Amino acid sequence: MGNTFTGGAHEISLSNGNTSVFVDVMMLAASATVTTEWGYRFAGRIALSDQNVFGLGMVGFALEDFDWGQPGEDAAANKDLVLDTLALAASRYRWDDLDYSPPLIGDVLRRFQAMVEDFDTDTAAAEPDGDCFPGPEDVVARSCLRHRVLAPLVANPDCVFCDGR
User: Fold this and answer.
1) CA-to-CA distance for 94 and 71, rounded, in angstroms?
2) CB-based burial of residue 1 (10 Å sphere; 0-12 exposed, 13-18 middle, 19+ buried)?
3) Which member of 98, 131, 149, 161 has the lowest number of beta carbons within 10 Å of its beta carbon?
4) Per-residue pLDDT tens for 7-58?
5) pLDDT averaged over the chain?
6) How far apart are CA 55 and CA 75, in angstroms?
7) 3-class DSSP state for residue 139?
8) Residue 86: its pLDDT value, please?
């Protein structure tokens, strides 16, 4: 059992364990890169991949279901934010705060980066999937003081490190 993430011609299948590590390192990075409403929505999408809350094997997503914003500069800026977050995560940002060593996640992050780089935001769904990508009403600019990471979901006040641990 695992999770599948897609974008354009790319498909990434991750075990439940690798999905958990991906969420952890991405939330550490997103907490440093997010400054806009769309960024909090993106962080919310990553938080929706927390299997401790949403279930094992239930958290994959398709980039086509994201609300990338208006075609052109908005969508390009949002895509750049995702790429910046992936790059920061790949740089091992705050990995020393983890209570484990994630040696295999570097390859996963590179595969996600290639998927996002190749993804044409103009091919996203005309009506983004509200169940996949949180709307502005679903997120909040809130951080967990204990772990110093975003806890961006209105429906879940805990961060990914507090949930089920």
Assistant:
1) 33
2) exposed
3) 131
4) 999 999 999 999 999 999 999 999 999 999 999 999 999 998 887 776 676 7
5) 90
6) 30
7) strand
8) 98
* Angle of helix 73-90 versus helix 16-33 axis, rounded to 10: 110
Q: Using one digit for the tens of pLDDT, what is the confidence trace for 56-106?
A: 767 789 999 999 998 888 999 999 999 999 999 999 999 999 999 987 899
Contact predicate 93/29, CB 8 Å: yes
pLDDT score at 44? 94
pLDDT at 32: 97
Q: In angstroms, rounded to a whole number, what is the distance separating the alpha carbons of residues 24 and 47?
A: 9
* Alpha-carbon gap, residue 72 to 2, rounded angstroms: 34
Token pair, residue 17, equals: 């364990």
- Other C-beta atoms lying within 10 Å of the C-beta of residue 93: 17
Nearest CA to 155 out of 125, 135, 129, 126 is that of 135
Q: What is the mean pLDDT of residues 161-165?
A: 71
**CA–CA dist 138, 155 (Å, integer):** 7
Q: Whole-angstrom distance between the N-terminal and C-terminal Cα of the chain?
A: 21
**Residue 22: what pLDDT?**
96
Helix (H, G, I), strand (E, B) or coil at 15: strand
